[in-house]
């Protein structure tokens, strides 16, 4: 007689005189009944197959502990899944290469005399650091070499640059090559920000011609799109680790540069901002007296002890990339509001606020200018500035009540 006994991994059949081991089945006790013999043989085969599957699963699970997924592999998987096309894969890869080069220069900047100013001023009237200029060139060269980029707009360029070599290029790439460049000379956190758009029509003009003719005006118009049109956006953080974070519209993913072999490795999968998160706020409170009374009341509230007897913690890095990176992992709120001396705020909409707002919304957060969603604002100028409040959804909702 055969009896079925259930175990956690399989069902083991026992005869009246011998038992079958769960993972090492032996021959069943012979029976005078042929049906019982056949049934027992099938049972032994089933247990043997189950044992092989369990062993294989255990081996597979063990291997996964040592598996890594780099950025290139991840991008190819996204392409295979139909989330992006091959051309966008190439553009994103070229941006990651530019970030690796910038990271290397930053680490050696004091050694190879790349600290200090270049002696030039950008379109915003800001003194350019040496690495501002070099990083801009690195980004432009990497993007031009792909043959997939049609237009480039940078914080360091007066007008968008149409890449004449890439007549088949379809993508508009906007970027800030070095965010927080004031931190370079003192070796604090810096970063790069980028966003990728698809143009409404091809924009090809001679970027060596300084006259703003009709063709260039069309080029500028095609660049000035709302953040809601972004196809992809991201940043690269240069700090104790180099972290390349991006979204292609299906979540936010972070890749940390492994210096041992120079690859970005997936370390933060499908990032979601904690809600509620840590009680952290980040504002440049040196401008407190220049802000509106409503905003002052909000900040006064944050500095008051809460139900746990503790106020919010104030953190200010002076680098948008660093602020957003912390927020994605810990939550909280960051603000760069307008004030009496900067009626439109300090940050640029197209290549700073829009890409970061895109990332934060993909991670479950929100971004507003105090009145409307950042991603809904249509830029009228390439270097247009905007106030911004960005953070976890509950923190932005609390802020809105004070700004009403």
Pick out its properties.
404 residues, D-Maltodextrin-Binding Protein, domain 2, 19 strands, Fructose-1,6-Bisphosphatase, Chain A, domain 1, 3 domains, 5-stranded mixed β-sheet, 8-stranded mixed β-sheet, disordered N terminus, alpha+beta
Task: Write up this protein.
- One of its GO terms (biological process) is fructose metabolic process.
- This is fructose-bisphosphatase.
- Belongs to the FBPase class 1 family.
- Pathway: Carbohydrate biosynthesis; Calvin cycle.
- By secondary structure, the protein is an alpha+beta fold.
- The protein is built from nine helices and 19 strands.
- The strands form five sheets. An eight-stranded mixed sheet has the order 6-5-7-8-9-10-11-12, sandwiched between helices. The protein has a five-stranded mixed sheet with strand order 14-13-15-19-17. It has a two-stranded antiparallel sheet with strand order 1-2.
- The radius of gyration is 28 Å and the shape is globular.
- The protein starts with a strand and ends with a helix.
Distance between the termini: 80 Å
Number of helices: 9
- CATH uppermost class of the largest domain: Alpha Beta
Unreliable parts: 1-36, 43-47
Order of helices and strands: EEHHHEEHEEEEHEEEEEHEHEEHEEEH
Structural class: alpha+beta
Q: In CATH, what is the homologous superfamily of the largest domain?
A: Fructose-1,6-Bisphosphatase, subunit A, domain 1
For the largest sheet, list the strands in their spatial order. 6-5-7-8-9-10-11-12
Q: How much helical structure, as a percent, in the residues? A: 25-40%
Give the overall shape: globular
Q: Which fold name corresponds to the CATH topology of the largest domain?
A: Fructose-1,6-Bisphosphatase, Chain A, domain 1
Overall number of structural domains: 3
Major β-sheet annotation: 8 strands, mixed
Estimate the strand proportion. 15-25%
What value does the average pLDDT take? 83
